[in-house]
Design goal:
Blueprint: E1 3-8, H1 12-24, E2 30-35, E3 40-42, H2 47-51, E4 61-63, H3 64-67, E5 72-75, E6 79-83, E7 88-91, E8 96-98, E9 101-104, E10 109-110, H4 118-121, E11 127-128, H5 136-144, E12 151-156, H6 166-181, E13 188-193, H7 202-215, E14 218-221, E15 223-229, E16 234-239, E17 248-252, E18 255-257, E19 262-263, H8 266-269, E20 295-297, H9 310-329, E21 341-348, E22 351-358, E23 362-363, H10 376-394, H11 399-403
Parallel strand pairs: 1-2, 1-9, 2-5, 9-20, 11-18, 12-13, 12-18, 13-14
Antiparallel strand pairs: 3-4, 6-7, 7-8, 10-19, 15-16, 16-17, 21-22, 22-23
Helix pairs in contact: 1-9
Amino acid sequence: MAKHVVIAGGGTAGITVAASLARQVKNSEVDITVIEPSADHYYQPAFTLVGAGTYSLEETRRDVRKLIPPKVNWMRDSVAGFDAENNTLKVGSGATVSYDYLVVCPGLELNWEKIQGAGEALGQNGVSSNYSPAHAEYTWEGIKNLKPGAKALFTQAPLPFKCPGAPQKIAYLAADHLQNKGILKDCELHFLTHAPGMFSVPLFAAELKDVAARYGIHVHFQHNLVAVDGQQKNATFEVAGGDQKGKSVTMDFDILHMTPPQSPPEVIKTSALANEGGFVDLNQNTMQHTRFANVFGLGDAGSTPNSKTAAAVRKQAPIVVKNLLTLINGGELDTGYDGYASCPLTTAYGKVIMAEFCYGGKVTPTFPLDPRKERWSYWWIKTTGLPVFYWNYMLKGYEWFLKHDTDFVEPA
């Protein structure tokens, strides 16, 4: 009898694993089911480009039905509860689904409710976010309509969240746009981050500090956005560290780009699959669950301490598939995931720093070039090469692409 593999989540991680697994097994050996409620799949790495006016939102969207491999069953529903002790889960329709093996990859939720007034403010009065497909286009509307004397705020939420580089990437693109219009010197740009530094990897943090200084962007560390008043056009921040810890700062704005706090879905946080932080509790090298041997996980909802990017998923997926098949057929699990992630940092239109690193912040450049330098070639990879390889290779589960050292997949 064929083993039943259930994949909870049909985003980048779920589709990649399903496609790779389907390529390596016969239908008589393994049945694969993907549980995913959304009909649309978005290429989230391009949302920054949408917000910067160089990419259309429609170019980022595909029909999920066309991405699910023919040998894979798509259950268009949401997971309502996990019973890992009994190898079952419940879906929103009320049905119970049994499995022999489970792969958990539901992604993260955007917790707008943790910022007072954010949900009501989004999409009007200059308030936007590239983290939402519904509002990324509005980011560009705000940027392109800035006039001399304008004040723009760009915020970064507390970690963990998807693509730690994205909140500042749009700030640099906005600054470059204003510079090209000749009005940057007449505008006031602020980057306000909960973090104590520009980036978690010191090598790149130093370069990004210089980029911000080049544009005259005012950087505020350990400032966390807690409230937004869209009609009054002001934002309130709580100082999270330093001499001013605990104090509130309110700033006016003409445009505000927000990064929402993010977390795994509630169905994960309240399940036996979660660690104390609410993330799927995984071995950071094998991607196997720490307590349930027939459960694997990957992607943004996993507890592995890597940067949450699509590039990380590209490296995690082959380990998950290989170890899943090893578990089915017998053998030693592969401990090969080293925490690799990639964050191509857009510092201007036509310029990108290709930040690649693994656990511990170790820099692991793919190309034999100084990884700190801004390059046009990386911009081409980001805007042209990455989407092609994402849609045509990664989501189709081609093993060569997933295992090859050349990085073609990047975060939001």
